[in-house]
Write a structure and sequence with these properties.
Length: 219
């Protein structure tokens, strides 16, 4: 009686199972792993830049390689994306907005650094700049991967620096060196802040999230 009824019910359920949505267990590792990788890369670039900046500033010579040299930021340097934003204001942005700002900034900074690579006067310095540019290109791609894994679109429009014909060139060697100085200084600040950004983000997104997702059969 009761056993036969239960058996009949189970048979009917199994026969109709293909018509029901399937419960699928999916392990989503992408976001957490991508954030951790990007955080590690920012810390590596911070370390790498300390050596590179010292070598490059020595190449520029005094006063740029003097520890207490702290010139005012010139209007020309405004072409380089500035990281000097109020920290409370920066933290008040959404994760998407901060990631987009990081992506745009490093894309532009990379273009300027590649220009330095072509102008460096020694083979050793060109080699170091080239290696750093490759690492920074990896960071740009890594940030894009984080945005994709979190479902954020990449910023629209060109990511590189403005290339309009009216962009002025440095009228003398000192101002050219000043441009290089501010490029390295801003890059140091961006990397310092980005490391903090990705450290906070990796605490919000666990390295592995197991989710149950309903997937309709046949779709």
């Amino acid at each position: 009686g009761d056993s036969w009824g239960i058996f009949t019910f189970l048979c009917a359920a199994l026969c109709n199972l293909p018509a029901l949505p399937a419960l699928n267990c999916t392990e989503e590792l992408g976001a957490g792993q991508s954030i951790q990788k990007t955080y590690d890369l920012t810390r590596y670039l911070e370390h790498q830049l300390r050596t590179l900046a010292g070598t490059y500033l020595n190449y520029l010579g005094p006063p740029f390689n003097e520890p207490d040299f702290n010139p005012p930021r010139l209007a020309r340097a405004e072409r380089v994306p500035s990281a000097t934003v109020d920290l409370d204001l920066w933290r008040g942005l959404t994760d998407n907005a901060r990631l987009a700002a990081n992506y745009r900034a490093y894309s532009r900074l990379l273009c300027y650094l590649r220009a330095l690579d072509g102008q460096a006067g020694t083979a050793e310095l060109r080699h170091r700049l080239g290696h750093f540019c490759s690492s920074l290109q990896g960071l740009v791609l890594s940030i894009a991967g984080v945005m994709s894994s979190l479902g954020y679109p990449l910023p629209a429009g060109p990511a590189g620096p403005p290339t309009s014909p009216g962009t002025p060139v440095a009228p003398n060697d000192f101002l050219k060196k000043m441009d290089d100085f501010w490029l390295l200084k801003e890059l140091q600040t961006w990397l310092w802040r980005s490391a903090k950004d990705f450290n906070r983000l990796k605490k919000k997104v666990p390295p592995a999230v197991v989710t149950l997702r309903l997937e309709a059969r046949g779709f």
